[in-house]
Amino acid sequence: MRHLKYVLQTVRRESPILYGIAMFHFMLVALCFVGWMVDDRMLTGLNIWVKPMKFSLSGGIYVLTSGFLITLYPFSRRKKNIVNNIISWTMALEICIVVFQAARGVRSHYNQSSLFDGILFGSMGVLISIIVLTMVFFIVETIRLRLNTSRPVQWGILLGWLVVLFGSWVGGQMIGQMSHNVGVPDGGEGLPLINWSTIAGDLRVAHFFGLHGIQIIPLFAVLLTKKWSGPKLAKNLGVLFFGLLYAAWIGFTFYQAKQGMPLIRL
User: Fold this and answer.
1) Are residues 204 and 186 in contact, defined by beta-carbon separation less than 8 angstroms?
2) Whole-angstrom Cα distance, residue 85 to residue 100?
3) Largest CA-CA distance found in the chain, in angstroms, rounded
4) How far apart are CA 163 and CA 58, in angstroms?
5) N or C: which end of the chain has fewer CB within 10 A?
6) What local confidence, expressed as pLDDT, does residue 18 receive?
């Protein structure tokens, strides 16, 4: 909790707009949870409020992560403000569309059943493309600059951005086929809450682990550097090994899904 409090305080002080947008996401999590409790409408085998609740939580964590990581880059105040505003407003608009479509009881993704739905889905694609460009920006800057952290953690951040970019590419694969399942239509048997298919391939598995690589790999690097007093080269190699192992796991889940196989068959 002490570390979480430090992250929250740092983002609030250094990136107030990202802090505000992250809190907005977490407020939506609570709102969607209430909706889940009082609204029994179902969509593709799941209560309509579960998906926006998961997206709000995931989006809020991503916004907080971006808000904290950007403090490690030797950017000018003006450059930070530009990047923070781009991330903030694109993420806020994206989640508003997801929640709005859920409130209407229709799908937010792959929905082209009307001109209005198609425009919203297309808008989401544009917004996510902007976020992906910011990821590419962070990758380039992480390679180019010396961050205000240890070298192993910088390696962890670089690998995290690369993995999250791959996770976003998997999202593009889902848009390309206009569904997340492989082998069966969306909405079949799935794991509780997360609803990953238990009878066919599901690209959301690789997408999920890819998007959260930007938290998991840098956190591993921080723990490694704090808990292990080995030489710097060994720490760098440890982070690199973990990052490659994590990337291999995502590659495996992507391959598995493309073959029409579920992560867990029930």
Assistant:
1) no
2) 22
3) 60
4) 16
5) N
6) 95
User: What does the DSSP 8-state code read for residue 229?
Assistant: -
Q: CA 225 to CA 152: how far, in whole Å?
A: 7
What confidence score (pLDDT) does residue 207 get? 95
Look-up of token digits 């799935």: 190
Three-state SS for 220? helix
Rounded to two decimals, the pTM is: 0.92
Residue listed under structure tokens 């809020």:
60
Q: What is the structure's pLDDT at 142? A: 98
pLDDT of residue 169: 95
Task: State the Cα–Cα distance between residues 183 and 176, nearest whole angstrom.
Answer: 15
What is the pLDDT, as a whole number, of residue 106? 94
Which pLDDT value is given to residue 209? 95
- Residue 235 in contact with residue 223, Cβ under 8 Å? no
SS3 266: coil
CA distance 142 to 157: 8
Residue 63: is it exposed, middle or buried by C-beta count within 10 angstroms (0-12/13-18/19+)?
buried
Q: How many CB atoms lie within 10 A of CB 106?
A: 16
The DSSP secondary-structure symbol of 169 reads: H
Residues listed for the chain: 266
Neighbours of 224 (CB within 10 A): 20
In angstroms, the CA 178 to CA 83 distance is 30
Mean pLDDT in order along the chain per 10 residues (266 residues) = 87 94 97 96 90 96 96 96 96 96 93 93 95 97 96 97 96 90 84 89 95 96 90 93 96 95 88
DSSP, res 182: E
